[in-house]
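User: Good morning. I'm curious how zinc ion would be positioned relative to this chain. Could you predict the structure with it bound?
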Amino acid sequence: MNTPNENPAISGIHHITAVAASAADNYRFYTRVLGLRLVKKTVNFDDPFTYHLYYGDETGRPGTILTFFPWEQLPRGKPGTGMVSAIAFAVPRFSIDYWNRRLNEYGIAVDTESRFGEPVIRFNDPHGLPLELIGTPASADLNSDGAVLRTAIMGFHSATLLLDRIDATEKIIVEGMGMTPVLREGSRYRFAMQDDNAPGHLLDVRVDPSAGRGRPGGGTVHHIAFRTRDNREQLSWRQRIRQHGLSVTDVRDRKYFQSIYFHEPGGVLFEIATDPPGFAVDEDPRHLGTTLKLPHQYEALRGQIEEQLPPLELTDFRHVYLPPEPGAKHGDSIVALHGTGGNEHDLIPVVRQISLSAPVISLRGNVLENGMPRFFKRLAEGMFDENDVRYHAHHLSDFLAEAARCYGPMDNHRIALGYSNGANMAAAIMLLRPDVFSRAILFRPMMPLKMTPGPDLACKSILITTGRFDRVIPSAETQRLVHTLKKAGASVEVVDMDAGHELTAGDIEAARSWLGRGPGRRCATTPSRIKNAA
Ligand code: ZN
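Assistant: Good morning! Here's the predicted structure, ligand included:
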């Protein structure tokens, strides 16, 4: 063991800060696709009209924190030498296939490789920032709950510095910062930091003079911060780095930590940040990241700042939300999905004829076909781009989870109400994300996916209405959907209308009476959450 002031050693990565473009895209990707938690929503202390967003694990431990300055219209930079060229997160080794599939379903291109015997998935975030997931043995010190534990990101694994040459940098990180060279594979050198029980205790250096100098901008890392225990230790670091001939800033107050900064000889901006006080200093740990936090000096500008910052949530679907009618018993909420060429207003009158009081969220599809909104692409009439169906089904499901957080009363007891293309999307979500809807009313649907994944729909009830003279939907395709849903265990009722593709009063009446009969005997018990709310 090293004694602190004689021969100190950096214990690990504290946080990494990168530059993004659109804040909403950034937020969506890191919270929905990667499943990180927004642990602090604040502003750039030098530019209070832009966000500073911090993502991390549930409690925002050092070693899990990736932060962003999103500048909405910023051109892309280019990762290159003199920068952190990749950020690696650790995931449990057995979850590597899961992550590969998940990224694919979200349409993200991935490369895989093996590095020092560990599997690596490489991909970029929406603004081009190079990220990696590295499979490691799941360690026992995780403090998340079991369900999330299985696949969730466990904090940083390592970061890679891309350099023209290693010698001067190696000298500072080994002799100055107390890191230990541990492995080498070709032009990649690995250094370990002291606290190997905490996330982010590895630093890689890749030497490639042909890579070209990095250009700052969207999708590049701004700096990497390393951990120090407290202010006293930080001051001794400051002295020590200066003794190595580098110029170091004064201590700066970042509210959640105190920081000093210096450029290492290869050009990468390093920070040394204190573990305390941490993110709970101005927010209850359970509610981290839920409200905009401003440093004292900007509180007077709060109104203007909130007005100018772009919204992070609920930006991907234009929608109408109708809260439950005052005095109405809290019941299931209805999610309305229109047909091709419709919009978020079309189905509202239909929904209100079926249920007078249910909370409703009605969405506008965000895929355009000759200017007509839809919920996924089609290659021709009745021919779907299946990858696109999957992508949008996940996207919409995630949006509904976000809507539930924003609007409150919506929960897992959502009823899908879809017409035509909207009904197909609702059916796809039923098959791909069975947790999203408890029941569904599908007017004129057909089978949206060729492959049937075989979900468990045992507790779901579904009403399907068809038009006997419908020229748009081949009845065999509706049959196939009915068959698939039944095979998965759903209770399906089919009502044939003396109608074409258009929605009729008969459809609405059928839906109203079906809904009035309740969720069916197999699912008659309402969860306690609903009871409490009533
Ligand atoms: Zn920083």
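The pocket of zinc ion is lined by residues 15, 17, 223, 225, 259, 271 (CB under 6 Å). The chain has twelve helices and 28 strands.
Let me know if you'd like a different ligand tried.
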